[in-house]
Write a structure and sequence with these properties.
The protein has 308 residues and is of the alpha/beta class. The chain is 50% helix and 15% strand. Helix 2 (54-64) runs parallel beside helix 3 (84-95).
Length: 308
Amino acid sequence: MPFGTVKLLDGRELPMIAFGTGSTMKYKDVTDYVEQALDNGFCHIDTAAFYQTEKYIGIALRESGLPRSSVYITTKYSNKDVTVRESMRNSLENLGLTFVDLYLVHFPGTLEDIEIGWREFESLKEDGLAKSIGVSNFSLEQLQLLFKTAREKPVVNQIELHPYNYAENKELLAYCAKQGIVVEAYGSLNSITQNPGGPVDAVVDAIANRIDATPNQVIFAWVKSKRAAIVTTSRSKERLHEYLAVADLPPLTPEEIAAIDEAGAQGPPSASRVARTGKAVMVLVLIILAALRLYSGTGIFFRALRLA
């Protein structure tokens, strides 16, 4: 079963999983990896001017022979030293395309004036150079600021999302859902690949055993439960198959989702150890204080006896 799409605010469809060319692929020739992703079922390719991978994606697209309508391309405005329109022209030239499907503001600080900058994004959409426009790494407050002057809302907010930062992003996710903005999640596997041994691991492993899945697949199933699209990457064909197979997994139960949320709220391994150490120190301090009070009270009692 394919991963499927989600309808955006502007009526267009966004594929719910994307092959990303950032992370460890930045500044590298990713031609072979993009071709591999396209050959193995990915139709959405995510890049950015900052990654310097656009020209290699363009080569992969040409060599794939796929019709333009069968691929979905996202890129991002990353360099405030050039105008939004100039950056878009450079991206299109590198990609060998006449338009991109989704154009994002890579970071809030990329737009020195958010009102003027977003107007340029809106004009790109009006001119057909970008079919949809959105943002990346925007906080709730930054979205609210954008909405004060935007004629057209961003259809997407691409953010880092995993169990260990879910609690701090709950309000942002709720706001995006209320506004009809689709959240795209990147870095979701960081919770188990970069923070092994944390409280999330045991919960994920237990769920993986129940549904006959890998821990990576459980994390992506959790991302899906938050109604977020997935941006991921791998040089391994087997990993790509593993990620796409998440579409065939049974949904996590509400109890399993809550268990991952609660484990993530404890923080990654270092934070969890600090919290546990802090609690232990606090208990020790309370014991010492209680002992001092008891000792003090006993001393007063014996002094009173001697005086009597």
